[in-house]
Specification:
The protein is α+β, with helices and mostly antiparallel strands and 430 residues long. The chain has helices at residues 3-38, 45-56, 179-185, 187-190, 238-255, 266-280, 297-306, 363-381, 395-416, 423-428; strands spanning 80-81, 103-104, 166-178, 197-203, 208-211, 219-228, 230-231, 234-235, 257-260, 283-290, 295-296, 309-311, 317-320, 326-332, 347-348, 350-356, 383-386. The strands form 5 sheets. Strands 12-13-14-16-10-17 form a 6-stranded antiparallel beta sheet. The longest helix has 36 residues, at 3-38. It is elongated. It starts with a helix and ends with a helix.
Length: 430
């Protein structure tokens, strides 16, 4: 046997030992994780007490003693006197409630009878329709040993992730990992997706779920990642879903995490949501056209700012509510966008007020406000209020638009559980 053969045999044996050692190491880490999750949080108090008593004193057999029952004399009948309650404050259900001693009137010369011992009253409860079940002790949630930080986190708020709108992957990490490392792990793969990905983690310090971003300086052990199924570009594709699932498996392997994937009926779910969106996705516009002279850009800016509107980077003036949510916008009827530097020399023959129905809360009220501001603009600029066909809009037509094209679609959204202007609606109609 040559030295080459001996060397190859030695290398083969070393490789087998290395693979065997790596498998053992993986098995130990998974066993530690399982023990950390399944270890009970509380000791068995009854078992400890029984063991302690058995150690302190030996058990002594006691025989029952039967004694003849002696009939006790019946006490005199006493009628309780009902008194007015002191107050009408509601009872606290988490505190024990004890019965008041009845106010018994006794004739002069008689001894005051001793009140009989009254058992504690039970807290008021709704009568069950069937026999009440035997109360069970509270089950502790699966947790690691005390101090490991595995207290219950609760469900993720729908404002952050909604299983109806996102394909949500759940990950539980063995050790906390920084948000920056998590977000950069599969960034190259996820950049190929045509739908947004939302990252949510549980902040152990604030005890709340929060959206993760690159400027977060925390480390998380509970992680939720959601691939948005639908936006205004349509439903998610099978290719995007495959890329996302592969990236999540790779992320779980890198973080040594336990990943939970939802059921696979994702494409059908996305198609249903997309059909719903198509039925309520409307934008309502009111146009102002000049009756002669063009509108000066400086005058447009003055009127817009007086109405509380702000010029944004999208080339339109937008009005926001007190919470910073967009209500409606003012755009140039012509193709030129509004820009701060160009407004001094800009002139146009038309303006358009635009309301995005699914993204605006209380759409009917906002539409009335927008209509009133449009009337002020028309009066100042000597313009006419017209529709997209440049036909004048009457009061009855504006009222019809408000009821049929704003009120009804928003009622449909509310019935579906996605109110217009909500966080879910803003993600969905983006």
């Amino acid at each position: 046997m040559t030295e080459l053969q001996i060397g190859l045999i030695g290398l083969g044996g070393a490789a087998v030992v290395a693979v065997f050692g790596y498998n053992k190491w993986q098995e130990m880490r998974q066993r530690k994780l399982a023990e950390a999750v399944m270890k009970p949080q509380h000791d068995d108090v009854l078992l400890e007490r029984r063991e302690k008593m058995s150690e302190e004193a030996p058990a002594v057999r006691s025989e029952p003693v039967f004694e003849p029952e002696i009939a006790a004399p019946l006490p005199e009948r006493m009628e309780p006197v009902l008194t007015e309650p002191v107050d009408d404050e509601p009872l606290e259900l988490n505190e024990p409630i004890y019965a008041e001693e009845p106010d018994v009137q006794v004739a002069p010369g008689e001894e005051t009878p001793m009140p009989a011992e009254v058992p504690p009253m039970a807290a008021p409860s709704v009568a069950p329709t069937s026999a009440p079940a035997k109360p069970q002790p509270r089950q502790a949630e699966p947790a690691a040993a005390e101090g490991d930080g595995w207290e219950s986190a609760g469900a993720v708020p729908a404002e952050l992730l909604d299983p109806r709108l996102e394909y949500v992957v759940t990950m539980e990490l063995v050790e906390p990992v920084s948000v920056v490392q998590i977000l950069h792990s599969q960034r190259e793969a996820l950049q190929r997706l045509h739908k947004p990905v939302h990252w949510v983690g549980f902040n152990e310090r604030s005890r709340e779920w929060e959206r993760l971003s690159a400027d977060n300086d925390i480390a998380v052990r509970r992680l939720r990642i959601g691939l948005q199924l639908v936006n205004r570009m349509g439903p998610v594709s099978e290719g995007d879903l495959t890329v996302f699932v592969t990236a999540m498996h790779d992320l779980a392997d890198e973080l040594m995490a336990v990943a939970d994937m939802p059921p696979s009926r994702v494409l059908d779910q996305a198609a249903e949501i997309d059909r719903f969106c198509a039925a309520v996705d409307l934008e309502i516009g009111i146009n102002l056209v000049s009756r002669g002279n063009a509108f000066a850009g400086t005058k447009i800016r003055a009127l817009a700012e007086a109405a509380g509107m702000v010029l944004g980077g999208d080339g339109a003036f937008t009005r926001y509510d007190d919470e910073g949510r967009a209500q409606f916008s003012l755009q140039n009827y012509e193709s030129t966008l509004f820009a701060p530097d160009a407004l001094r020399s800009l002139s146009t023959h038309g303006l358009t007020f635009l309301l995005d129905v699914p993204r605006v809360d209380h759409g009917e009220r906002v539409f009335m406000q927008m209509t009133e501001i449009a009337r002020r603009f028309a009066e100042t600029l000597q313009a006419a209020i017209v529709d997209d066909n440049r036909q004048p809009l009457t009061e009855s037509q504006l009222d019809h638009i408000r009821r049929e094209f704003i009120g009804k679609p928003q009622a449909t959204m509310a019935g579906f559980g996605l109110p217009a202007g909500s966080a879910q609606a803003l993600r969905l109609f983006s």
